[in-house]
Amino acid sequence: MLRLLFLVSVAFVLSACVWSRLLEWQKQLKDFDRYVTSAVEGPDFILKFKEPCVRPADIGYLFGGEQPSGTRERAGGGVRVSWLLRRDRPDSIGLDVALGAADSGEKTLADSLIVPPQVRAFIPDDRLLAMARALGTAKVDRGKREATGELAGLAGKPLTPGRRVIVAAIGEPDSSAQVDGLDRLTYIYRLVQPDGSLGKVSELILDLKGEQLVGARLKAPNFNAWMDLSGK
């Protein structure tokens, strides 16, 4: 019993530290031009942090596994740390959520976040940049571990990839349903463990109104994020 209480208390402290760093990261996103720059390098759209404040493992924690799926050397020095999300089906098109860091040390802070190239296939870079800025002002419910943001003004202009483009980028959804007049596509992913096995489940939910992408939701084991893309 004492061992159980000890483990629970350790987990609580660790998660509190993770959330403290993530909230600091949100503050930086709110003051985006001061703390963040963006770049396109080959297939990658990269957010670069001028004053790193999160560890790569913090992002892994959100997906249910602090140990990355893999780590490799990065061109120009440092490492690229990846959390791979795969669908448990033969036609799976996975997502590679990656961060850059100076080294693979446990306490080394991430200097960049790399957007999965599959997402770039249906959300253009300027809109990805606007979404990153919007996360800075997203409403955060720490109790529910969720954030809700929205695009407005010019950033909220209709985004019209259509279902065909989305399917070409990330595959057929695991389920599709009509919800309040919207076409809701749900993709179910599992985190690839260091040994190659599939771990905890995350869901990517996309809402379409005709050809327009009006909403995106990520439901991860330790975090939920919702972005309203309708531009209302």
List keywords for this structure.
disordered N terminus; 6 helices; 232 residues; globular; 13-stranded mixed sheet
Q: What would you note in describing this structure?
A:
The structure is a single chain. With 232 residues, the protein is an alpha+beta fold. It has one domain (2-228). It is 28% helix and 38% strand. The protein has six helices and 13 strands. The protein has helices at 2-30, 32-35, 56-62, 117-120, 125-135, 162-170, and strands at 36-41, 44-49, 70-73, 79-86, 95-101, 110-115, 139-141, 146-150, 175-179, 182-192, 198-209, 212-220, 223-228. Strands 1, 2, 3, 4, 5, 6, 7, 8, 9, 10, 11, 12 and 13 form a 13-stranded mixed sheet that branches. A hairpin with a 4-residue loop joins strand 7 (139-141) and strand 8 (146-150). 29% of the residues are buried. Residues 1-14 have low confidence and may be disordered.
Shape by Cα distribution: globular
Count of discrete alpha- or pi-helical segments spanning 4 or more residues? 6
Question: What's the mean pLDDT score?
Answer: 90
What is the number of independent domains? 1
Radius of gyration from CA coordinates? 18 Å
Helix content: 25-40%
Element-by-element helix/strand order: HHEEHEEEEHHEEHEEEEE
Number of strands: 13
Compute the separation of the termini in Å.
Answer: 52 Å
Strand content: 35-45%
- Oligomer designation: single chain
- Characterize the biggest β-sheet: 13 strands, mixed
Structural category: alpha+beta
Q: In terms of per-residue confidence, which ranges show pLDDT below 50 for 5 or more consecutive residues?
A: 1-14
